[in-house]
UniProtKB/TrEMBL annotation:
<feature type="transmembrane region" description="Helical">
    <location>
        <begin position="117"/>
        <end position="136"/>
    </location>
</feature>
<feature type="transmembrane region" description="Helical">
    <location>
        <begin position="249"/>
        <end position="270"/>
    </location>
</feature>
<feature type="transmembrane region" description="Helical">
    <location>
        <begin position="293"/>
        <end position="313"/>
    </location>
</feature>
<dbReference type="InterPro" id="IPR002797">
    <property type="entry name" value="Polysacc_synth"/>
</dbReference>
<keyword id="KW-0472">Membrane</keyword>
<feature type="transmembrane region" description="Helical">
    <location>
        <begin position="382"/>
        <end position="401"/>
    </location>
</feature>
<keyword id="KW-1003">Cell membrane</keyword>
<feature type="transmembrane region" description="Helical">
    <location>
        <begin position="15"/>
        <end position="38"/>
    </location>
</feature>
<keyword id="KW-0812">Transmembrane</keyword>
<feature type="transmembrane region" description="Helical">
    <location>
        <begin position="413"/>
        <end position="430"/>
    </location>
</feature>
<dbReference type="InterPro" id="IPR050833">
    <property type="entry name" value="Poly_Biosynth_Transport"/>
</dbReference>
<feature type="transmembrane region" description="Helical">
    <location>
        <begin position="436"/>
        <end position="454"/>
    </location>
</feature>
<feature type="transmembrane region" description="Helical">
    <location>
        <begin position="212"/>
        <end position="229"/>
    </location>
</feature>
<feature type="transmembrane region" description="Helical">
    <location>
        <begin position="357"/>
        <end position="376"/>
    </location>
</feature>
<feature type="transmembrane region" description="Helical">
    <location>
        <begin position="325"/>
        <end position="345"/>
    </location>
</feature>
<feature type="transmembrane region" description="Helical">
    <location>
        <begin position="169"/>
        <end position="191"/>
    </location>
</feature>
<protein>
    <recommendedName>
        <fullName>Polysaccharide biosynthesis protein C-terminal domain-containing protein</fullName>
    </recommendedName>
</protein>
Length: 463
């Protein structure tokens, strides 16, 4: 560590990445009524399962090499080193995909699944576009990351309408549209990378590949753990209760999902900033400044959401899901611990300590499953929401204490007291369920917090 920190572009990158992320999510939400009217319930369910399986398998099959490529590109200053990282990463991914495709083609005659070729194509193109996106981020081209996200979304949308609405080929049409969109995205990203003129000078490096694998393998455990964590509630509720309770629990998670989606954009930018700042002598001071601001924002963001939840819940959720309300409040509080755990995860990425990411996520997943199974027959659906809250809290605590071995991050008594008070008041007002009181207090709370935090907001904008 030698240089000082001027700016890591944290806010700028959050805005750029946010445009792409929120824009594509908005388009998806807008199109949801059309897809559900054009496709049968069975077809829509098939697409959902297909996409869930692809999303779960891609991080495992890629060995998370793309994450290593991203992190090591950030540290690379010379074109030759960037080229070596690029070639080592891409050639490794191509080799992995070649093995997967050969094995799949050998096994296909014994597999009775009409979408098997589409599934293989989906794996191939999703792995490729994922690694290219991480290369783009590693090169600091976040604008291209966002352009690609919007481009792929629009191409997917256009061909989905053509295939499903006008050619009426249902599931096959959706999958074809997805493949075409990914091909367009891959071509666009390759053009952006080619313009950097860094491909020619370096070469594949075995020792670097070993370093990549050492860095990325714990990331697989991290991804699998999050997949288990998110899926275990649904599976346990479905097994011990029934699908009706699953529907209630799904509705309960909508508000917390919005918070997590918004924070995920910042988290993506924070990983990059925490990595770029790592070479600085001021790294610990920098992380503590950001930590204090984000801790403050998360406490009050969650508290304000609790206060206005009676209003938002009624707008977004049909009254037949009214049983979901209290679970919704528990899950909103849980998002605070998720957000802070994600923040600490960004620092682990920055200091290249991915072992702690995988271990802590697995502990949280096991905690969630254990509490769920023990309590589900005693308190019913509350077991799912309470186990999620406790597992996120456990994740938050373990990551916080493990982080102290890397850098010293502190939570002072002021923030602990603020959190207890803010969450307590927010929870009480949300249970009283008076929409006028919620609106008035929520508005005043948001205004007061904004006015009192002008100094911190200005500081964050400079980061």
């Amino acid at each position: 560590m030698g240089k000082s920190i001027r700016s890591t572009g944290l806010v700028k990158n959050t805005v750029i990445l946010g445009i792409g992320s929120i824009g594509t999510k908005f388009i998806s939400v807008i199109m949801l009524p059309f897809y559900t009217s054009w496709l049968s319930v069975n077809d829509y369910g098939s697409i959902d399962v297909f996409n869930a399986l692809v999303a779960a398998l891609v991080p495992v099959l890629s060995l998370q090499i793309e994450q290593a490529v991203f992190r090591f590109l950030i540290d690379a200053k010379e074109k030759k080193r960037k080229s070596t990282i690029l070639k080592t990463g891409i050639l490794t991914i191509v080799f992995i995909l070649s093995i997967i495709n050969i094995l799949a083609i050998m096994l296909f005659p014994f597999i009775d699944y009409k979408l098997k070729y589409y599934f293989l194509f989906a794996i191939d193109f999703n792995v490729l576009i994922t690694v290219l996106l991480q290369i783009i981020r590693g090169l600091g081209k976040n604008y291209a990351y966002t352009v690609n996200s919007i481009l792929v979304c629009f191409i997917n949308l256009l061909f989905s309408i053509i295939y499903v609405r006008y050619e009426n080929i249902g599931v096959i049409g959706i999958l074809r549209a997805n493949i075409i969109a990914n091909i367009v995205g891959i071509v666009y990203l390759l053009v952006v990378i080619w313009k950097e003129r860094i491909w020619k000078s370096g070469s594949f490096e075995k020792t670097l590949l070993k370093t990549f694998v050492g860095y990325s393998i714990p990331m697989i455990l991290n991804n699998v753990s999050w997949w288990i964590l998110n899926l275990s509630d649904k599976l346990i509720v479905n097994q011990f209760l029934n699908t009706t309770y699953n529907g209630i629990y799904a509705a309960a998670g909508k508000l917390s999902y919005i918070i997590i989606s918004l924070y995920s954009v910042f988290s993506l930018a924070w990983q990059e900033s925490a990595s770029r700042a790592y070479a600085s002598v001021e790294y610990e001071e920098y992380c503590n400044k950001i930590h204090k601001i984000i801790l403050d924002i998360c406490i009050h963001m969650v508290a304000i959401t609790l206060v206005i939840s009676p209003i938002i819940f009624d707008i977004l959720i049909n009254e037949k899901f009214s049983q979901a309300y209290i679970h919704n409040l528990i899950l909103i509080v849980a998002t605070f611990f998720w957000c802070m755990s994600s923040f600490y995860g960004g620092i682990f990425v920055g200091v290249k300590n991915t072992d702690n990411l995988g271990i802590t996520s697995m502990i949280a997943a096991i905690t969630n499953i254990g509490i769920n199974i023990v309590l589900i027959n005693i308190i019913g659906l509350y077991a799912a929401s309470i186990s999620t809250l406790i597992s996120y809290f456990v994740l938050f605590l373990i990551r916080y204490f493990k982080l102290q071995k890397c850098i010293s991050i502190r939570i002072d008594m002021y923030h602990i007291f603020s959190m207890i008070l803010a969450f307590g008041i927010g929870f009480y007002i949300s249970i009283v369920d008076n929409k006028i009181i919620s609106l008035i207090i929520g508005t005043l709370y948001a205004m007061a917090y904004t006015i009192c935090s002008i100094k911190e907001i200005k500081l964050l904008l400079k980061m």
